[in-house]
Write a structure and sequence with these properties.
heterodimer; A: about 260 residues; three-stranded antiparallel β-sheet; B: mainly alpha; MetI-like fold
């Protein structure tokens, strides 16, 4: 069942001081679908995600969310961070319970923590400290913490970019399964085009700074059937790369200029 | 052109000092043994620096007579009350300065202006304000502990990773919950490091305050022994202060192990 929100981005722009980061962005993230934001470095993907999640106020335009919130939802718009953002002084279970413990009874909290730990394969690590876990396991805890609040919309900011390639592939499959099962609206920022075609129902290609919507591609295939070697997806990935390549090269040169 | 022929030399060792408990104990025992030997041989004049055995005898006599506990209990109460008051106010002020822009500049301006004042110089002023009794001594301790605690706490709050606070906000935690669940635990290592500094400062100020107008307390006892040229008891008092410092340090170490187990 798709229980997610519809997020409507209308004419959003943002500037940091004198630098225009985003300009005239209008998009709709449909309930239960995965919208993937891709584009060259510095195009404003994370800024746009921050605005969509209410963590950053846009300097122009609005973001509206419309839809039914499940009764057990504790945080409608929920982030998963690139750097995991786990509290090192809390165990795995403690991190997952961070929001639940003040809002649910002790029994309900324990039950929900146990449920999401089982869902993310973390049950036997419930009492481990984050420092004892690998990067992939830490990100699973980040996912478990996000799922524990029963979000109506998940916002993932390059959640796999800090991980090695093998862990990334494994987690990508798990993400696809978890997102399908949860049925929440998902906005996923990545610079990895293989992730984009594996997860996205809607792939939004942003131009280099100031970020504008360059293209919106739809992939109407269930996430469960998408494999890394699927020729259609490989072709789509190559198509995306052709769109981004020139902008990425210019963005890289601009970065070198700024650095020097 | 030179030529290499042989095993690759190992170059990666060193720069990894390790604690050796036996070496620490052996050093202390060695120094005391040398001191005793020098005193027994007449190399060290015992009128000015009594032998360790004489100090131990004086300490035993003080313990048996109940004199030691009379002075030590007075000092411990002053230390506990003065340090606790200074620490509680210091943590409160440090959090306020670290969290609220309205208080940050005024608070840090006051702390910066008052922190460098040697607190011992304020003892006469505190005696005028609070009288010669306990009030002035407790105020000296609390005042001396307050400022380093503010600085340690505010520094700890400043160093809380912004990403963690942002995470808390993204999950809809209230301001109070973010302070309780994220800011305070993240600042705790800095606050506990501050405890090590403030406990030492508190012992120094305790002795100084007790040397001015106190009948009981280790500081008063040491001063009185010095006035009487009773170097055995004087050194016995100093040994007690050293043990007090070690005990406080041990307690803080236990607190660190208890609250910072996640860092191990």
């Amino acid at each position: 069942m798709n229980t997610g929100l519809r997020l409507t981005v209308d004419g959003v722009g943002h500037h940091y001081g004198g630098m225009q980061a985003l300009s005239g962005i209008s998009l709709v993230a449909e309930p239960g679908e995965v919208m993937v934001l891709v584009g060259p470095s510095g195009c404003g993907k994370s800024t746009l995600l921050g605005i969509m999640g209410g963590m950053l106020a846009p300097t122009e335009g609005t973001v509206r969310c419309v839809g039914e919130i499940p009764p057990d939802c504790l945080n409608p718009l929920t982030y998963v961070f690139q750097d995991f953002s786990l509290l090192p002084w809390r165990t795995v279970a403690g991190n997952v319970a961070l929001v639940l413990e003040d809002r649910l009874s002790r029994a309900d909290c324990s039950a929900r923590v146990a449920e999401v730990l089982a869902l993310t394969g973390l049950t036997e690590f419930a009492r481990a400290w984050p420092r004892q876990l690998s990067g992939g396991m830490r990100q699973r805890v980040g996912i478990a913490r996000a799922l524990a609040v029963r979000p109506a919309c998940l916002l993932l900011d390059e959640p796999l970019s800090a991980l090695d390639a093998q862990t990334r592939d494994l987690l990508l499959e798990e993400f696809a399964a978890l997102i399908t099962q949860a049925g929440t609206t998902t906005v996923y920022v990545t610079h990895n085009l293989a992730e984009a075609v594996r997860l996205g129902h809607q792939i939004v290609v942003l131009s280099r700074r100031p970020g504008q919507v360059r293209e919106v591609l739809r992939v109407d295939r269930p996430l469960a059937g998408r494999g890394a070697a699927d020729p259609d997806l490989v072709a789509l990935e190559q198509c995306l790369w052709r769109m981004i390549r020139d902008d990425a090269a210019v963005a890289e040169r601009e970065r070198i200029d700024v650095a020097s | 052109m030179s030529r290499l022929d042989g095993p690759v030399p190992f170059r990666g060792g060193g720069f990894a000092p390790r604690d050796r408990a036996w070496a620490a104990a052996a050093t202390l025992i060695g120094v005391v043994a040398l001191w005793q030997a020098g005193a027994s041989a007449g190399v060290i004049p015992t009128l000015f620096l009594p032998a360790p055995v004489s100090i131990a005898r004086a300490l035993w006599a003080l313990t048996v007579s109940g004199e030691l506990w009379k002075h030590l209990s007075a000092s411990l109460i002053r230390l506990a009350v003065g340090w606790t008051v200074g620490t509680l106010f210091g943590i409160g002020m440090g959090l306020a300065v670290g969290l609220w822009s309205v208080l940050r500049s005024p608070g840090m301006a006051l702390v910066s202006a008052l922190f460098p004042i040697p607190k011992i110089a304020l003892v006469p002023l505190f005696i005028i304000w609070f009288g010669i009794g306990e009030g002035s001594k407790l105020a000296t301790l609390a005042f001396g502990v307050f400022f380093p605690t503010v600085i340690a706490t505010a520094g700890g709050v400043d160093n809380v990773p912004r990403g963690l606070i942002r995470m808390g906000q993204s999950f809809g935690l209230s301001h109070a919950a973010i302070v309780r669940k994220i800011v305070l635990p993240a600042a705790l290592p800095a606050i506990l490091s501050g405890f090590r500094v403030t406990s030492s400062i508190a012992i120094v100020l305790l002795v100084a305050a007790e040397m001015i107008g106190a009948e009981r307390g280790i500081g008063a006892f040491v001063l009185s022994a010095g006035n009487l040229y009773d170097t055995d008891n004087l050194l016995a008092g100093i040994v007690v202060l050293s043990v007090l410092g070690l005990a406080v340090s041990w307690v803080i170490g236990r607190l660190e192990r208890l609250f910072l187990a996640w860092r191990a």
